[in-house]
Amino acid sequence: MSARFVLDREPSLSRSTVVRDELLRVDPERLTAGWAHAQVLRVDPAGRVAAKDGRLVLESASTTGAAPAKDAVLLGEDGDTPVWAVPTPELEVLEGEQAVDLRSGGALLDDTGAGLLTTAAALLAWHAMARFCTVCGGRTKPVSSGWARRCAQCGREEYPRTDPAVICLVHDGADQVLLGRQPTWPVGRFSVLAGFVEAGESLEDCVEREVGEEVGAAVTDIHYLGSQPWPFPRSIMLGFEATADAAAPVVPRDGEIAEARWFTKDDVREALARGEWTGNPDDPGEEVPLLLPGSISIARVMLESWVG
């Protein structure tokens, strides 16, 4: 049995303070009463919102109309205040504000803002891809305050889809970790291994299969660490740790992993201390240091916790 570790902080996109109230979504009287003091978050087609000093810029719902628009989605309640997301063709950013998306600004937002933007990104991306019924092909329309869509032709209701994916920090039980680089990543950028859960597969079996397929390593002592929503566009990352033999051959899967190798805790500490995405990995003449995932990802929390 190897030495186990736990996540030493909550992943950035797992933070939230807003209450999700399923009953509110289908209560016309409460929705109407709440709209008078509700707030809205405007989101442009690129998924960008206005933010200032680490907080989302919200506005009074009354500025958007006397009632929620058909494409508005209820994100939840912040205290007694309902908060909605509203798609907007063009984002207005005032002086002192900045336009951010979830990747660039999610980790910099406060807990309330992180939860609101993560939910908004997931819901709005789903609506954009679920305009037609998967059974009869008829057009669907939003219902339940944006938490479902109903087919106008056959009446079938569909709900936001979330695809589970495992992400696993593989270590040797001591001071080495196995990291991989995808072919689309620049030289020097590595991360822990990940893959989607297949139909009829348990999470633990997925960890074992994905690690074996991607780098040829046989893992044992699989343990759950934590999770993080990853709405790019509709995933949730389920974090695990597992052990493998560092002396066994590493065989990167052709087309999926460009290279994979073992790094020591000192290697990882140095990379973390350099900050996020340092160096110039696009310059082939420059010696590239180890580059690790940014703070938006659960992968970085896993690596920080492991070396800690």
From TrEMBL:
Residue ranges occupied by any Nudix hydrolase domain in the UniProt entry: 160-285
Gene3D superfamilies per UniProt: 3.90.79.20, Nucleoside Triphosphate Pyrophosphohydrolase
GO molecular function: hydrolase activity
Cofactor(s) this protein requires: Mg(2+); Zn(2+)
PANTHER family linked to this entry: NAD-CAPPED RNA HYDROLASE NUDT12, NUDIX HYDROLASE, NUDC SUBFAMILY
Family: Belongs to the Nudix hydrolase family. NudC subfamily.
Protein name: NAD(+) diphosphatase
Species per Swiss-Prot/TrEMBL record: Rhodococcus antarcticus
